[in-house]
Amino acid sequence: STALMKRPLNIYEDLFKDLDIMMYRDSLESLVIKGKLEPGSFTMRGDVSSQFVSGMLMVMPLLSGDSTLTVTGELESAAYVNMTIDVMKEFGINVVQKNQTYYVEGNQSYRPRDYHVEGDFSQAAFFMAAGALAGDVTVTALDPSSVQGDMEIVRILKKMGADLTYTEEGYQVKRSQLRGLDIDISQIPDLAPILGIVLSLSSGGGKLLNGERLRYKESNRIEATIDLINALGGEAKEVNDDIVIRGFETLKGGRVSSFRDHRMVMAAAVAALRCEEPVIIEDYRAVSKSYPNFFKDLESILK
Hints:
32% of the residues lie in helices and 24% in strands. The protein has helices spanning 2-5, 10-18, 50-59, 78-90, 121-134, 152-159, 192-200, 221-231, 262-271, 294-302, and strands at 22-27, 30-34, 41-45, 67-72, 95-98, 101-104, 137-139, 163-167, 170-174, 179-184, 203-209, 235-239, 242-246, 254-257, 279-282. 36% of the residues are buried.
């Protein structure tokens, strides 16, 4: 998509330049790469996106010799790299990690196998938030021992005072009086939109801290989250990559932009559960990127 192509690729551009591999954008929707990636020692910044690290790790075992990847600076969304390594191991690939250096043998092969894909905490977060804000919800098919970084939603909601427990049926969340909180989202950027809504409906509000990477998602999610909250009658503003949010008992509602961003659509829909007036979400079909049945599932918990 054009939105995907707008994301920064300078991490790979810098790496490939050192390796004499040519990479350039042929148009808004195509990327041209010329050259062959040889085994070796690679260095990559970790402060832009974990996806660059995951991409290199996945290709390194297929090279003709052993390689190392050293990540410099703080690794953003490190949990996603851990998930990548876990899945690679499930398919027969060995990766050795020491601090932020990864050692990968070459000439390995991915082995086909049946694989159970566990439930997604990133998507479940919207329903957990809905339960805490509006009424009882049970979210099933989630692994409480998961390495998913967005499992942090459980700890955050509990810290805010949510009545949230895990049973054999799944995570049960009851409507709760939530306390405000300052939340570091540098490692959980995908949770920012829904956490913004939760803070706007908490006692005291709070801040979403260290949100620089939100600018490079499907939309500029700093601007989009602030715009959504304010359009619904709340109060939010940006201060040096942080989002400062005032808490209210309810929001007003109204027409909001989704910025054609699937997570903004879902955040707006959950916010509607605590709005005084209906919420009209423009370009709501953007939700189909990651969760085409979202509105069907949301409707099922409202019956």
